[in-house]
Fold:
Amino acid sequence: MAAARIIVFGLGPIGIGIAQVALERGHHIVGAVDADPQKAGRPLSDLVPGADTTPIELTAGRFLRGGADVVLHSTQSRLAQVVPQLVPLLEAGLNVISTCEELAYPWYHHPAEAAHLDRIAKSHGVRVVGLGVNPGFVMDALPVMLTAPCRIVRRISVERVVDVGLRRLPLQRKVGVGMTVEAFTGGVADGSMGHVGLPQSVAMIAAAMGWTLDGIEESIEPEVDAERAVRGLHQTCRGMRSGEAVVTLDLTMATGVAHPRDAIHIDGVPPIVMEIDGGIHGDVATWAIAVNAIPRVLAAPPGLLTAVQLPPS
Structure:
């Protein structure tokens, strides 16, 4: 992999991990951005071992004409939150790899925003893509790849079970660990609770398979312990076609799960079943996926891309 000049945009746990992997791969970090005033002005080496003393900036303005090859972007999950960050980068002729979950496949739920980003990227000859482990790999791109030897594909289902007790505290809070059932239910109702990205993964799979969906259904329920305290969530998303679920994504993220795993079932000819015992570690995989994609993204045609449009390696 040829060394690339990188701007790291967002220095939370994911952004810091991405920066570390980028340095391990021999890339050059030429800029760092984070909106936290407590980080701005500090040398990047304070947060990323092995980095140089590049000062962290509050905004990307100073780097827009600095000759970077790609921005590794990891800030928020919702498309509306990141579009104002992405547009100036694309207009400055910078390629962007983002971990924004809704950017993984925005064409179904946010077609106007998707078309807008696609036009800007194409007009400036650059690429923008949302990548990660989920969405971006284990529950969408990987099952699509596994359909390659199938003569017929009728249905695709994926089950992901994650023991968040082994993961960082922000992720545990994100899935409701320690909440009351009432607070969890309220969070689901106001949109603050639940994993972001399952509907995007369903839409990505359907588009790759050439299936026109009648709709996408989603449910989110708490996983509780013996005292009725929330220990995580169970979230299911289904892509419906002609009255049946042709894509089913089943996600459990909770403490103390019995059998962490990623399991893919393709109902087809031939049928395919694949299980990854223990599952793929979300943070570590996201760091690697973002960095490993750099040469493939830079070699792709300009525009808004999805994970299934990139070669697998």
